[in-house]
Write a structure and sequence with these properties.
The chain is α/β, with parallel strands linked by helices and about 400 residues long. The chain folds into 2 domains: about 5-130 and about 305-330, Rossmann fold (3-Layer(aba) Sandwich); about 130-300 and about 335-375, Dihydrodipicolinate Reductase, domain 2 (2-Layer Sandwich). Helices cover about 35% and strands about 20% of the residues. It contains 12 helices and 15 strands. Strands 14-13-12-11-7-10-9-8-15 form a 9-stranded mixed sheet. Helix 4 (about 75-85) packs parallel to helix 5 (about 100-120), helix 6 packs parallel to helix 8 and helix 8 (about 190-200) crosses helix 11 (about 335-350). The longest helix is centred in the first third of the chain and has 17 residues, at about 100-120. It is globular and about 75 Å long. It starts with a strand and ends in a 20-residue tail after the last helix. The mean pLDDT is about 95.
Length: about 400
C-alpha cells in the first residue's frame, strides 16, 4: 500500500476543517464523504475530484472505497462507527471525545482489541491534537523525566471557553443530554482532560460542583469546579466555564523539585528548587528557612505543522509503515473521558465524592436516564454554515 484511501464521516465545523488540509498529507487520498445533509455531500464531491458521496456512514465503510475513516460526527456516534469499522478491518481516526461515557469507550477498546486478532496492524487513533503542541510536549517531558518531581498539587483553570447563546442555538443536538451527552466537559474540555491525566496521572477521588445552564439556556453543565486527591496525597483542582469572559488558561503543577506554570502564548515558567522541598522540610534546622529558587523561562518552539494535520499525517504514515507509533492512541481516550464523567457524576449528585475508576455502568445509566427524562426544548435552533476553527481546539 502506498496510499491510504480516507473516508470522512461528518462534515460540520470540524469535518470541513479537516478537508482543507487533506491535500497536504503525504500518502492520503481523500476518497469518500458522508454527511446527513445532501447539499454538503454534493458540495464536497464537486470541489474534490474523485471523492464519492454517501448519505449513510455504514454504506461508506462497506463500499470498498476506503481503507480508513475519520469520524467527525456528534459524540454518541463516535464509538458506533468505530466499532463497525473495526469489524471490517477499516482503520479509524476519531474526533474527540472517543465516546460520551467511559463504559462506551471501554466497549470500543475491547472491540478494537478483538479486531486486532483478525486484522493485525489495524490502527485506532484519537484526534488529541493538543499532544502535538510544543508547550504541552515540553511539560509532559518535565513531568516524566523527574524535573518537576513527585506531584504535590496541580491546578488548571480554563475559563477562556466563552460561548454565546447563539453558539448553543446553532444545532438542535448541541448542549442536550440526548444529542451531546453533556456540556463543557464533553465538548470543550476533552483535550484539557486528556492532557491533565497525560501530565500527572489519574486522581483516586474527586468532588465537583456542576452548574447546569448557569450562563446559558441549556440543560447541561456550562460551569465546573472540581477538587481531587491522588494516591501519593497530592491534591488538584480543575475549573472550567463557557460563561466567563475574559477568561484565562493557566496550568500550575507543583512538584517536590519546583513549580511549573504554563499560560497562554506557549511560555513555561519553572521555579526550580535547589533541593527536594520535602527533604529540606524534614532536615533543615532553620525555623524560617527556605530553599533557593532558580527561575527558568522556557519558550516553546513554533509548531512545525498545524495540530490536526500532524495527527492525521501520523495516522496515515503509521498505517503505511513509515512510522512506528501513534501520537495519540484512541484507546487512551478513556482516561480523560472518565475524569470528566467523574466530575459530572459528582456534580449531578450534589458534590458527593466519586472514587476512580468510576462505576462506569452507573454513569452510563445516569446519562441515559437524563436523556430519556428530559423535557428541555430549545426555544430557537439556527443552523449555520461552518465556522472558522482557528481559535479553538
Amino acid at each position: 500500500m502506498d496510499q491510504v484511501r480516507l473516508g470522512l464521516i461528518g462534515c460540520g465545523n470540524m469535518g470541513s476543517h479537516h478537508v482543507k488540509y487533506f491535500p497536504e498529507v503525504p500518502g492520503l487520498r481523500f476518497a469518500a464523504i458522508c454527511d446527513h445533509k445532501p447539499e454538503v455531500v454534493d458540495q464536497i464531491t464537486q470541489q474534490n475530484s474523485g471523492v464519492k458521496g454517501f448519505s449513510d456512514a455504514e454504506a461508506l465503510i462497506d463500499s470498498g472505497e476506503v481503507d480508513a475513516i475519520l469520524i467527525a460526527t456528534p459524540h454518541y456516534d463516535h464509538p458506533v462507527y468505530a466499532q463497525y469499522a473495526f469489524e471490517r478491518g477499516i482503520h479509524v481516526l476519531t474526533e474527540k471525545p472517543v465516546a460520551v461515557t467511559a463504559l462506551a469507550a471501554e466497549q470500543t477498546n475491547a472491540a478494537y482489541e478483538a479486531a486486532l486478532k483478525k486484522h493485525p496492524g489495524l490502527q485506532y487513533a484519537g484526534m488529541f491534537n493538543q499532544r502535538t503542541r510544543p508547550q504541552w510536549k515540553q511539560i509532559k517531558k518535565m513531568c516524566d523525566d523527574g524535573t518537576v518531581g513527585p506531584l504535590v498539587r496541580v491546578q488548571w483553570v480554563i475559563t477562556n471557553w466563552f460561548r454565546s447563546q447563539a453558539y448553543y442555538n446553532s444545532g438542535g443536538w448541541r448542549a442536550t443530554w440526548s444529542g451531546e451527552g453533556g456540556g463543557v466537559l464533553i465538548n470543550q474540555c476533552p483535550h484539557n482532560l486528556d492532557l491533565f491525566q497525560w501530565f500527572v496521572g489519574m486522581p483516586n477521588r474527586l468532588w465537583a460542583i456542576a452548574d447546569l445552564g448557569k450562563f446559558h439556556d441549556i440543560e447541561v453543565e456550562d460551569d465546573i469546579t472540581a477538587m481531587m486527591t491522588f494516591d501519593n496525597g497530592a491534591t488538584g483542582t480543575f475549573i472550567t466555564s463557557t460563561g466567563q469572559t475574559p477568561g484565562i488558561n493557566q496550568l500550575t503543577i507543583v512538584g517536590e523539585n519546583g513549580t511549573l506554570i504554563a499560560s497562554e502564548g506557549g511560555e513555561i515558567r519553572f521555579r526550580q528548587a535547589s533541593q527536594n522541598i520535602r527533604e529540606y522540610c524534614k532536615t533543615t534546622e532553620e525555623r524560617f528557612g527556605n530553599v533557593a529558587v532558580t527561575e527558568h523561562v522556557i519558550t516553546a518552539p513554533k509548531q512545525p505543522m498545524p495540530q490536526h494535520q500532524t495527527i492525521t499525517t501520523n495516522f496515515v504514515t503509521v498505517i503505511l509503515g513509515r512510522e512506528d507509533k501513534l501520537i495519540a492512541p484512541a484507546v487512551e481516550g478513556i482516561h480523560g473521558l472518565e475524569l470528566g464523567n467523574a466530575m459530572l457524576l459528582s456534580g449531578l449528585n450534589g458534590g458527593a465524592p466519586v472514587d476512580l475508576p468510576t462505576d462506569r455502568q452507573a454513569f452510563d445509566a445516569k446519562i441515559k436516564q437524563l436523556a430519556a427524562e428530559s423535557t428541555f426544548v430549545k426555544k430557537e435552533v439556527v443552523e449555520t454554515t461552518a465556522a472558522s476553527m482557528n481559535g479553538t481546539f
